[in-house]
Amino acid sequence: MFTPYLLRPRDVHVCSEMLCQAFRRDQLWQALLQGIPAPQQRGRALFRTLLRYCLRYGTVVATSPLLEAVALTVPGSHTQVGLWQLVRSGGLYTSIKMGSVLRQRIGTLFSDVDAYRERYMAGQEYTYLEILGTQPHLWGQGHGGTLLRHLLERAAQRGHPLYLETETAQNVAFYAHFGFTVVTSWCLPEVHHPLWAMVKAPLPQKVIPR
Asked: pTM of this prediction?
C-alpha cells in the first residue's frame, strides 16, 4: 500500500528547486518568465509561495522524502489567494520576491481561468490540484501516476471531484487515462498558449458485504 511523504515547511526550499527543474522545459512556464529580470529567482519565489500556501491550507505530498514527484492541492474554498492568506501561510515575503511583473502577468493570464473554475464548481466541495511535478530524469517511470492515484482515492473517500488545469495535449491524454474529462479550454492572452480544464468525478464507494 502506497503511503505518501507529507512535506513540511523545512522541505520548501528543496522542493522549490525540484519544481523549477521539473518545469524548466514547460512552454507556459517559460512564457510566464520571459523577459523578466532574474527569471530563475522569480520562478523559485513563485513555487515557494505556492508551497507555503498549500502547506497551510491544503496538502503537499511526495512519493518519498527523495521528492521523485510532488503534488500540491487545496480545497476548492481556498483557490483564491488573498493578502491575509499569504500572511498566515508565510508566503507574503516570497510573493514579494516574485516581483510585480510576474504577479501582474499571472493575474492577467489566469483571471478568466479562475473565474470559470469558480462558476463551474459553484456550490460543490472539491479538491483543486495546483501542481503535479516530477523530477525530469524520472519522467515516464510512474511517479506522477502514483501520486495522482493517491489523490483520487482521497477525493473519492471525501466524495469530492478533483479539478485541475493543464497546458499540453500530452498532459490531457495522461489525465484522461485516469478518468479525467475536459470541461473547457482557452488560449491564454498575451502568450497565446492553450490551457485545458479537467475534472474527475469521485469514484463510487466500494460496498463491503457483511
From this structure: 0.93
